[in-house]
Amino acid sequence: MKKSLFFKSAFILLIGSMVTKVLGFLIRIVFTRIVGQEGINLYSLVMPTYSLLIALTQLGLPMAISTLVARGTKRGKKIVMSVVPITLLLNLVMMIIIIFSAKYIAVNLLDEPSAQFPLMSMAFILPFISISSILRGYFFGKQRMLPHTMSNIIEQVARFLIIVTFLPGLVHQSPMYGVCGFILLSIISEFISIVIFLLYLPKNFTIKKKDLKPDLKTTKEVLDLCLPTVGGRIIGNVAYFFEPIILTFVLKSVGYSNSFIVSEYGIYNAYVVPLLMIPSFIIQAVSTALVPEVSKSYELRDHTNIKRRLKQSLMLSLILGLISNTVVFLFPEFLLNTIYGTVEGATYIRIMAFIFVLYNLEGPLSSTLQALGHTDLAFRSATAGIIVKTISLTVFSYFKIGLYGLIVGEILDILTIVGLNFINLKKVLKR
Question: Rounded to 5 degrees, what are φ and ψ at 97?
Answer without folding.
Answer: -60, -50
